Amino acid sequence: DEAELLYRRALETRERTLGKDHMSTDALVNRARRLNEADLLYRRALEALERTLGKDHVHTLASGSNLGRLLHAQGKLDEAEPFLRRALEARERTLGKEHMHTLTSVNNLGSLLHEQGKLDEAELLLRWALEGRERTLDKDHVDTLTSVSNLGLLHHDRGKLDEAELLFRRALETRERSLGKDHMSTLRSQPGVAAS
Fold it and tell me: What is the dihedral of CA 46, 78, 108, 157, to 10 degrees?
């Protein structure tokens, strides 16, 4: 598993350079332990919710989406995909195409597919999320700006640097205006502009 290999390399590097007892090394070990524990807990919770509330209940869908996002964070992309697809399909059916939870599922699946290299489908989903969030939330809403940045990243990876730069600049300028130049979200937007 690629995620486990990367984790082991990071751990070995930290142990070699910082020592086994350094707090940064310890933090990495604890994070991995917590992610594995969370994986098991999410799976148990999802099974219990499916049995008691049904597969389309809002809490069951949230649990499945959370498990998919956790697997994505762990680098288990192929394992995460069916959970994120199921959450999106059920939310679209039960809540509608432009409900904020549906749009979150659209964005999450689009981001996963982007990372998997499924760029055409990812772009369709990321556009859907952005356009839906612009209509239902606001052009300056934090979730809308997340969609702006995600679509910018996809354009960057496709070599569409002009389109990427426009999106990155939009996200950065809006965050600077609404959050301030020193806010963490604003600072995280700056590398995207520089990369385009």
Answer: 170
